[in-house]
TrEMBL record, chains A, B:
All copies of domain Cation/H+ exchanger transmembrane, residue ranges: 17-409
Localization per Swiss-Prot or TrEMBL: Cell membrane
Originating gene: SLC9A2
Main location as per UniProt: membrane
Alphabetized Pfam families for the sequence: Na_H_Exchanger, NEXCaM_BD
Gene Ontology BP, a term: regulation of intracellular pH
Transmembrane intervals: 12-29, 35-56, 68-85, 97-120, 132-153, 165-185, 206-227, 247-268, 289-307, 319-347, 359-380, 386-409
Name of this chain's protein: Sodium/hydrogen exchanger
Family: Belongs to the monovalent cation:proton antiporter 1 (CPA1) transporter (TC 2.A.36) family.
One GO cellular component, as annotated: plasma membrane
Keywords: Antiport, Cell membrane, Ion transport, Membrane, Sodium, Sodium transport, Transmembrane, Transmembrane helix, Transport
Topology with respect to the bilayer: Multi-pass membrane protein
Domain Sodium/hydrogen exchanger regulatory region: 529-585
GO MF annotations in UniProt: potassium:proton antiporter activity; sodium:proton antiporter activity
Length: 585, 585
């Protein structure tokens, strides 16, 4: 037996296996995940495992390594979040999200820090040795809402898209603020005197960390898009580039002390539309599937490790401090949301209702990021108290808030997510309105979001697409792409139902006819509406219709390492087409 | 700048990126890969990079770590090979493959070992200090044909399926022999006296290492199949199990000093048919795609590292020894193939032609496995000579043989691989013949391969399928599955051509009608033929036809971490069906 030799990969594989099997286990009993969020169940599994390890070895089980968390477990989840981020609601609410993420987080940090310092002054609690700076440092790590925890809970309760993006977007973008404040207070703790210059430098750093992250991310994202222009002959490695470039953007940002989370999100959002157009359909399925799979596994591991790490002797149980931390976390978040939303609502027509405000405040879950940060603290005599307080806050938010938020959403009758994707008709009207508003903004001289969006779209089609897309002479309108996607999906369903060729269903005929005429109409409407719009839309549709009878079934060579069966490009067989045409006429 | 912190993942990502970009680079110029095999180009890139590193640092570039090779780079390639192994030709030729892999390898090891020992006796060469045991040890690592190198060259030349499986199967299965002989001679080198018992133990080990590997692999493979029975509600982690279980089988086998390569192949071949039936179509695409991607990257990295590691000061250039090694490798392989094929041809109707024999002998490429094994040798004063000889043999076989084998195949007019996959008609006839032969063998009392195959199939449908498949009450015949696959592919092509619903093409009507009637006919033929055959085939077809009009288009919720859009199960809408039926009548 030679265990040493294979230990590292063997144990990693076993942990992932355990996590996956736990997941299957929960889903075998359908009732369980519908009541308790998966994150709670996973932490519970972790607690049991930690208990077993503690009981057997009689020493604390290993704590989740912060390096492993930040370098290997967090990036897949953030990449998945960024890649599948619904960009429209995100950019429509970007102002509100940034306000919550930046001002809200600073508010929470200072609120929690100062009030805990106040608690420390009460002699009965025996906490006078905890300085203001240490309290602020603790505040900076405990204030940040955790994207992993938020995602795990919110994707199960299906609230409306705006509410979801407000909480989720905040949890992602507050990373920049958390990183800056945490590092600032940590360096202040180690300094003997603090000059006012240092504070100004700290404020300046916000912009460097955040905008630097965006810049790094976009650079890598556009490079990724450019690279996929050249993968036509070697389709199997296409998915790799999506993962490699996003991971590199994260690592590069971390290397320069910028926000890695912001970088990977910018990278994913920047590359998405170009990569999707360049890579093959199968590559794209693989990218999507693997991202989901990876993030799902990471997320599972994080919660299990969180449970395991909770058990042990790392804690100092000073109950007043711990209880007040929980209370202040709740109060300051609620206050912050109320105050900020008051200002937001004054400048928006589409206001945030009080029900939504409650869910935003209540959805401020803490998670593994706080946990990893508290272990990264420099050693000082009260570190174990901070670890205990962080653990309790995380368990409280994940268990109590996480488990009650679904009943509360039901009780308050919060507006839910719409069941189905927007129809082509709706999409057309949304686009129509976008163009109209961009025109109005242009005429009235008000440079609002529609104006900038339109300018960006112009820049994109004029320059970026030509560089980044393989077939840049024929860029496809999103509606044409949607049409193609729907048709393909429909075809597969038809084939699975055995309907193909036997008897074309009337609805499909009607529907596709409807889609087609809609597309044509859009193209014409769009064309008339504004000259910034792509005039190739119509041409595209014509091309799709023209390719009508040109493709016939063809099988590739039996097997090969670099290609999958059925990937070969179809060739045009003139004769076959003529026969087909003849028969259909 | 904090490079230390991200160094490990950053450098790994950069290496993979370099490898992928190099691959894209070759494929940009279509002419290059058609003349020079990719493996040669990659080694060349590696040589250049090694030269640059050597020139800049003035010390030898890092050598490929044997642990990294065996634990991380080799498994993906072998998994891919095992999973996509065409099982029919493999099992039809299993006897011949095993003969080449076991007897052929032993023949080569002793042949090369003893003749090199002869060379060492020539005083002019100054090699008298290399003992017989060391020569045999060297023979054991240089004799084994390398699956990675063989695959890289053979998949580009497209020889016929039987020839391919003979060379490739041999290269995979000789791992067990190589492992045993290598470890045996290595322990003999460290022993003072060798008893005859030790030699018998060594012979016994062959069976333990090989059969043990098969057992470990099958155990994990069937467990994997069993696990995927329960993943219906959590489709995104399905692909993970395929990778996790196969990797675990490899690691477990390595841990017990069994053949990891044999284990992972047994695992992949054992799980394939059950996993494919259990997991969703998208999961399966992801599994296939990711396997190809992973093996492609591993393979690229191996050849680049091979190039990089060649540069440096690890070599002792004793030219007589090196040249004779190359010559003996060629001669003993050629002799071995000739002698073994003579015996094989006496017992087979379908003989191996002399052209095929030449390609089998000439296709015995050496690669990274030899290279890693030679670095794992215990330190002794002639190790650098062995490293030099191994490097030269690898470069000679990959460059000279690899580059000339394609012209030789053309020149000799070796029978090529058939272009297209077998049609449904052919498949039916093959199955018909299988049943017939199984019956004949049963009656005549000759227990040949058809008899055993039939028994295995009976055992499979009677017991294994019920345990391992989710819908075990309706196991699908391979022909029904093929039919479904073809229909789905056809549907996608139709949709892409825009033909769907507008005008169903006549050929598709004809073809699917033909397929259907064929299926029915087969089912009846099969049913009449033997009662061991599945009586559900007919039922299956009826089900497919019955589902005809039942499925309608339906969209899932907008986004979720654990599911991909469009995964939801379609529901039966009674009203819609009635309307559809009414209209079609």
């Amino acid at each position: 037996l030679d265990y040493q030799h294979v230990q590292v990969p063997f144990e990693i594989t076993l942990w992932i296996m355990l996590a996956s099997l736990a997941k299957i286990g929960f889903h075998l009993y359908n009732k369980l995940p519908s009541v308790v969020p998966e994150s709670c169940l996973l932490i519970f599994v972790g607690l049991i495992m930690g208990g077993i390890i503690y009981g057997l070895n009689d020493k604390s089980p290993p704590v989740m390594d912060s390096d492993i968390f930040f370098l290997y477990l967090l990036p897949p989840i953030v990449l998945d979040a960024g890649y599948f981020m619904p960009s429209r609601p995100f950019f429509e609410n970007i102002g509100t999200i940034l306000l919550y993420a930046v001002v809200g987080t600073i508010w929470n940090v200072f609120g929690i820090g100062f009030s805990l310092y106040g608690i420390c002054q009460v002699k009965a609690f025996r906490l006078q040795d905890v300085s203001l700076l240490h309290n602020l440092l603790f505040g900076s790590l405990i204030a940040a809402v955790d994207p992993v925890a938020v995602l795990a809970v919110f994707e199960e309760i299906h609230v409306n898209e705006k509410l979801h993006i407000l909480v989720f977007g905040e949890s992602l973008l507050n990373d920049a603020v958390t990183v800056v404040l945490y590092k600032l207070f940590r360096s202040f703790c180690e300094m003997s005197t603090i000059k006012s210059v240092d504070i100004f430098v700290g404020v300046g750093k916000f912009f460097v960390v955040g905008l630097g992250g965006v810049l790094v991310g976009l650079t890598f994202g556009l490079t990724a898009a450019f690279t996929t222009r050249f993968t036509k002959d070697i389709r199997v490695i296409e998915p790799l580039f999506v993962f490699l470039y996003s991971y590199l953007s994260y690592l590069t940002a971390e290397m320069f002390h910028l926000s890695g989370i912001v970088a990977i999100i910018a990278c994913a959002m920047g590359m998405k539309r170009y990569v999707e157009a360049n890579i093959s359909l199968k590559s794209h399925t693989t990218v999507k599937y693997f991202m989901k799979m990876w993030s799902s596994v990471s997320d599972t591991l994080i919660f299990i490790f969180l449970g395991v790490s909770t058990i042990g002797e790392n804690h100092e149980w000073n109950w007043p401090y711990i209880c007040f931390t929980v209370v202040f976390c709740l109060i300051w978040r609620a206050l912050g949301v109320l105050v900020l939303t008051f200002f937001v609502n004054r400048f928006h027509v589409n206001t945030i209702t009080s029900k939504d405000q409650f869910i935003i405040a209540y959805g401020g879950l803490r998670g593994a990021i706080c946990f990893s940060l508290v272990f990264l603290l420099p050693d000082f005599h009260r570190k174990k108290l901070f670890i205990a307080a962080t653990t309790v806050v995380i368990l409280f938010t994940v268990f109590v808030q996480g488990m009650t938020i679904r009943p509360l959403v039901d009780l308050l009758a919060v507006k839910r997510e719409r069941e189905s994707a927007p129809t082509v008709g709706e999409q057309i009207h949304i686009r129509f309105l976008d163009h109209l508003l961009a025109g109005i903004e242009d005429i009235s001289g008000h440079w609002g979001q529609y104006y900038w969006k339109d300018k960006l779209e112009y820049f994109n089609s004029k320059y970026l697409q030509k560089i980044l897309l393989r077939e840049y002479d024929q860029p496809k309108s999103s509606i044409v792409l949607l049409y193609e996607k729907l048709e393909r999906k429909h075809a597969i369903e038809l084939a699975e139902a055995g309907q193909l060729g036997h008897a074309p269903s009337h609805p499909s005929l009607l529907r596709s006819g409807f889609l087609c005429s809609n597309n044509n109409r859009t193209a014409i409407t769009d064309k008339k509406l504004e000259d910034t719009l792509n005039p190739d839309v119509l041409e595209n549709i014509q091309q799709i219709l023209a390719r009508n009878l040109y493709r016939i079934r063809r099988t590739g060579p039996a097997y090969n390492r670099h290609t999958l069966p059925g990937e070969a490009e179809p060739v045009e067989h003139a004769e076959e087409i003529l026969i087909l045409r003849h028969k259909s006429l």
